[in-house]
Write a structure and sequence with these properties.
With 419 residues, this protein is mainly β. Strands 9, 10, 11, 12, 13 and 14 form a six-stranded antiparallel sheet that branches. Strands 15, 16, 17, 18 and 19 form a five-stranded antiparallel sheet that branches. It starts with a strand and ends in an 8-residue tail after the last strand. The N terminus is likely disordered.
Length: 419
């Protein structure tokens, strides 16, 4: 398998990242003296539960709004949609809210401004694979996903430019209101390179100046293998506008690259990328120019075993972590081994996953786990959220019951990246 990176400028070399010292095992079991193991424990809670033979709740993702919960704690908004049994066929947008850090949640509430829309011929237009995030500079929450066009049978239609497009909505917590879906301004090449634009299931970054670094995957008009790049965008509190994009990366085979997620840790940007056969990782100093990609491995050199699904980051001031699914967990009965969900610390220099740090975040109970999210909530905890993929009205023999999970990662040290 070969990968390709189309460069726009000279690639910066990676500088060493050093964290304070305790023993952590590295390549082939040898101690790594300059990498500290950050301890954490897991508390997996139910945010919502429903069994329904017509749909299941899908890709719940959470974002904290500072200071608007009880007693000065953050409020947490979770965006969520119905999966309508046909592959990748989703409802309009719903959301849930907690003001007490997950002790109680509102039930999923449909957002009128974000319901299905219709083209003149009856084609359904929805937005899927949404990730919300807080934009501190404007005091707004932005939720970004993919505009999708559906036939009456729920099949995705790709016959027109931007049948997949970069869509967003803005939530104003002071008025408790959502804007209608908009498309990102000024993204070029709609009839050629950026024929399909997919910011789906991605983690994105807000820079100190308020600009946004948004990873996407995209396809040309030939609908061939998809590529990954990062868009730099401006945001004025209302409108998200394309400014430029970075290196363009792809791989031959397995539909190319998709679902990139981004993190910033100690001055370096990290990107994890999905491919049908294995997951990849790369780094950058500016979020636009990227080093050659490498497959994800454990620190003993073995393949991570994550494939044909997404992975997401949790960044802590004292460590970088990856959440993922993988083979080799007595889970071959699960399609694409998409349960359980794990979390493990990453060596930020050697770009591998520290096997000894791995813990199960969300259990396997007989069904796949769907598209998930990972986000910092307070200095003391981060959350990974997901839902059991089952459109049934009865309990699965292994225990699945349509739960929407909120897995708390409770840190042993405060996360100084969270204000």
């Amino acid at each position: 398998m070969k990968y390709y990176v189309r460069k726009h400028s000279v690639l910066l070399s990676i500088t060493g990242l050093f964290i304070s010292v305790i023993v952590l095992y590295g390549f082939y079991g040898k101690p790594m003296e300059n990498l500290k193991r950050l301890q954490f424990r897991v508390q997996t809670d139910t945010a919502y539960q429903e069994l329904n033979k017509k749909f299941c709740w899908f890709h719940p993702r959470a974002a904290a709004i500072p200071g608007l919960g009880k007693n000065g704690k953050p409020a947490v908004i979770m965006t969520i949609q119905k999966h309508l049994k046909v592959s990748d066929y989703y409802s309009g947008m719903y959301y849930m809210r907690t003001d007490d850090l997950g002790k109680t949640w509102s039930a999923p509430d449909e957002i009128p401004e974000l319901q299905w829309q219709y083209e003149p011929d009856g084609t359904t237009v929805s937005v899927a694979d949404v990730t919300p995030g807080w934009h501190a500079q404007t005091g707004k929450l932005i939720a970004i996903g993919i505009k999708v066009r559906y036939s009456k049978e729920g099949k995705q239609l790709l016959d027109k430019p931007r049948s997949h497009d970069a869509a967003y909505t803005v939530f104003d917590p002071l008025t408790n209101s959502w804007s209608p879906w908009k498309m990102i301004n000024n993204v070029p090449d709609s009839t050629s390179k950026f024929f399909l634009v997919n910011p789906g299931c991605v983690q994105w970054i807000v820079k100190p100046d308020g600009k946004i670094l948004l990873p996407i995957y995209y396809s040309g008009s030939d609908l061939g293998e998809s590529s990954v790049t990062v868009l730099e965008c401006s945001f004025d509190g209302t409108t998200l506008s394309y400014l430029r994009n970075g290196d363009e990366m792809t791989v031959k085979g397995g539909r190319g690259f998709s679902e990139p997620s981004m993190a910033l840790f100690k001055g370096t940007y990290y990107l994890t990328i999905r491919n049908d056969f294995k997951a990849y990782v790369t780094t950058s100093k500016d979020g636009l120019q990227w080093s050659p990609v490498k497959p994800w491995t454990f620190d003993d050199g073995s393949d991570l075993g994550s494939y044909n699904t997404q992975a997401h980051w949790l960044a802590h001031s004292d460590g970088l972590f990856l959440s993922y699914t993988r083979r080799g967990a007595n889970n071959d009965h699960i399609p694409r081994n998409r349960a359980p969900i794990f979390l493990a610390q990453v060596d930020p220099v050697k770009l591998n996953v520290i096997r000894a740090s791995e813990q199960v975040l969300i259990p396997e109970r007989g069904v796949m786990l769907g598209n998930f999210g990972a986000s910092a909530i307070t200095p003391d905890e981060s959350w990974v959220t997901d839902a059991e993929y089952m459109a049934e009205n009865k309990l699965h023999p292994r225990g699945a019951n349509g739960t929407v999970w909120a897995a708390r990662v409770l840190w042993s040290k405060k996360n100084r990246l969270v204000k």
